[in-house]
Design brief:
250 residues, alpha/beta, 31% helix
């Protein structure tokens, strides 16, 4: 699919509700949360994981305990089992395709969750081909990103019709970590950066012309900081109308 206005867009020109516009009886990463974001006129950030048989579901945690009261990992169960489980509002865990449809043409940032290896396991990267495949058949304005560098390198090589971003976290033990990660991302062909709000100033100074989104913006001072460094906010816990005000300054 060639780059089009629908699939390749300026990620820095929008505000994004973190895991959808959730709260109260609306759970995170639910279709209700994505419907709410679209109705409010904001984009959404969401998380995708692959089930045991390689199907994509929208879910943040590695295990189902917090949201579904089940001890298993998402990647330990087949899709047919995961689809029988319910989020706190009684709705099923969405597929990526369902989430993009619920966003109704508003932009979406898709984070591919790759877990650090633990004893007896390796990083689960088997969802990457499925995400690329799903997006090839979609005209939804969606960008991809990950904390996992090999995953981002792969995306930059294979998903060239979509914005590809590196999520950049701080490291208190290594002040240069974030900049070095950004430099490597720049070299691999990333089209945008997604730094934590605490390291946004240094990333913006080093790469002033690279589109940016900042996470997770939870207060007016953090929104102001994101606006000052021309970064789109991935926001949570305050008015979507307030979050959208940054767009006037981009």
């Amino acid at each position: 699919m060639p780059k089009t206005a629908e699939t390749f867009f300026d990620v820095s020109a929008f505000a994004y509700a973190h895991r959808g516009l959730w709260g109260g009886k609306v759970p995170e990463n639910s279709l209700a949360a994505f419907n709410a974001a679209a109705s409010a006129g904001v984009g959404a950030e969401l998380d995708v994981r692959a089930t045991q048989d390689g199907r994509l579901v929208v879910f943040h945690d590695a295990t189902l305990e917090r949201m579904c009261s089940r001890p298993e990992r998402v990647d330990e169960l087949p899709f047919r089992t995961v689809r029988t489980l319910k989020l706190p509002d009684g709705s099923p865990i969405p597929t990526l395709e369902e989430a993009l449809e619920a966003m109704a043409g508003m932009p979406t940032l898709i984070e591919i969750k790759i877990d650090p290896p633990s004893e007896g396991t390796s990083r689960n990267r088997n969802g990457v081909p499925a995400v690329i495949g799903a997006l090839k058949f979609s005209n939804a304005p969606a960008a991809v990103m990950s904390f996992d560098e090999p995953t981002v390198w792969r995306l930059a090589d294979l998903a060239d019709e979509r914005p590809v971003g590196m999520l950049i976290e701080p490291d208190d033990d290594d002040p240069g970590f974030s900049i070095m990660k950004a430099i490597r991302a720049d070299q691999c062909g990333c089209t945008y950066f997604a730094p934590h709000i605490s390291v946004l100033p240094s990333i913006a100074a080093q790469f002033p012309h690279r589109p940016r989104v900042a996470w997770t913006v939870r207060s007016l001072p953090e929104l102001t900081a994101a606006r000052a460094d021309r970064a789109a906010p991935i926001f949570e816990g305050f008015s979507s109308d307030l979050a959208k005000t940054f767009a006037n300054t981009i």
